[in-house]
Known about the structure:
Blueprint: E1 3-7, E2 17-22, E3 29-30, E4 35-40, E5 45-49, E6 54-59, E7 66-67, E8 72-78, H1 80-88, H2 93-104, H3 128-136, H4 155-163, H5 173-180, H6 202-217, E9 220-228, H7 230-238, H8 252-266, E10 272-276, E11 281-284, E12 290-292, E13 294-296, E14 299-301, E15 304-305, H9 313-328, E16 342-346, E17 365-369, E18 373-379, E19 382-396, H10 402-415, H11 418-425
The protein binds oxidized coenzyme A.
Oxidized coenzyme A binds at residues 249, 251-253, 292-295, 300, 320, 324, 345-349, 357, 369, 371-372, 389.
Amino acid sequence: MANIDIKVPNIGDFKNVEIIEILVSDDQEIKKGDSIITLESDKSSVEVPTNHSGRIIKINVKVGDKVSEGDLILKIEASKTETLKTNKKETNISKEIYKISEKVEDNSENRPTIQNITTNNKSVLASPKVRKFARELGTDISQISGSERLGRVTEEDVKNFVKLGLNQNQLPKNNEEIQKSKIKIDYEHSEFGEIEVKDIPRIKKLAAPHLVNSFNTIPHVTHHDEIDITEMEKFRNSLTDHYTGEKLKITPLAFIMKALVIALKKFPSFNSSIEDMKEGKITFKKYFHVGIAVDTSNGLMVPKIREVDKKNIQHLSKELKEIAQKCRDLKIDKKEFYGGSMTISSLGGIGGSFFTPIINYPEVAILGVSKSNKKQILLGKEFKIRTILPISLSYDHRIIDGAEAARFCNEIRDNLGKNFAFKLAI
Length: 426
Ligand code: CAO
């Protein structure tokens, strides 16, 4: 049986392109069309297929090698049928590459080069299989951040992207307008020095229309208050595991969630959504699913902690940690962002005192929590050092009045007071 050299096919104008993956191994049987190596230019990557079938005798290249058209990749011992076919007619390997490029860029009439698989003028590292998968799901692969080396996009990345509903093609119409909308300025930033234009992270792009909509349509008022959580903190720091006796690490946020839910029960308008202002319809929710703003490297996400009223402090603390991690790993389903009562946005672990959170529409209020600090407070006739938690409640003034907001905050304050801390923990 004949030995056949498999060489680098026509890859357009590219020379010295790096091999980033060897997809086969010695002695392996390969079939015509199987990918054997992945090449990566500074623009994109492409898998190179073999146009002959047979058993690999020798691989002549390794990862990191730079190759150009005609360089030997590997030698195979041609299979029987292959030998017959080869004798009949030599196929042109560049046709195989052409097929691959066609798969990647269906509408492209350009030459089949590596450059052709660059989408939206943005280079994307992904195998043809992953690109095809993304295309079948109607997803623009250039929107996806790859999790592998050099940002290479995997099938898993595509799935997560689609799961999270981050597909620009699926964004509401007005998002397009918002994306396009730009306040004009009479100069270019670059006139004043060096600049760098980067992509806005997808989650920020996705959140943008909701934030703009909420900010522009809801008459926000923010009520600030300070809560003395000295006793709550003492209690929190004293909690130990029932069996091991070890100190429990419970986030203050678990207490705040509980306190919030007790207030929501007393003030149902905070757990509502306006259905139709013209018709005068409002929905009151009988469940208590609290949204928690989670800061991730991809942008802010607001998953819901369900049925906070039915869970204890320890359970809530654990669940919060887990759900925050799921957001950060992009392993969360978009349904987990739906159906909230009210949101808590806590910057307590970071810093600052007071801010003006934007309501997470269709909710009608959001509780901002800042970092607690030791402060000198006049208690009776004496000044005492107490731990003070700043809170900022933004509410929809169409539904909630200022007095109600103040009472709501008072309720939260009382719920975080010493007597309630014990009850909340049960
Ligand atoms: N005051 C003082 N310390 C606080 C605090 C507060 N209000 N809240 C939390 N802390 C402490 C915690 O106890 C923890 O201390 P230790 O490390 O000593 O145990 C530390 O700060 C770090 O807390 P954390 O932020 O990791 O955890 P958390 O439970 O407080 O918050 C989460 C979890 C997911 C809400 C948080 O990680 C996060 O992403 N916050 C940012 C939210 C955000 O960006 N909001 C702004 C949105 S714009 O509206």
